[in-house]
Amino acid sequence: MPSTSGAYRAAIRLGMAVAPALGLLRPRIRAGLRARSAAGERLLDWSRAHRDPSRPLVWFHAASVGEGRQAESVLLALRRRCPECQIVYTHFSPSAEALAEGIPSDVSDYLPYDLPENVDRLLQTLQPDLLVFAKLDVWPELSTRAAGGGADLALIAATVSPGSSRLRWLARRLLGPGYRAITVAAAIAPDDAFRLERLGVAPERIQVLGDPRFDSVVARVKAVAPDDPLLRLGGGAPTLVAGSTWPEDEAVLLRAFARIFRERPDAKLILVPHEPTAAHLARVERNTRAVGLPSPVRLGSATERDSIVLGDRVGVLAALYGAGTMAYVGGGFGRAGLHSVLEPAAWGLPVVFGPHWQNSRDAGLLLQAGAARALARERTGPAAQALHNQWQDWIRDEAARETQGAKALEVVNSGLGASERTADLLARLISRQRPRKLRSWAPTDLQSKS
Question: What is the CATH class of 222-413?
Answer without folding.
Answer: alpha beta
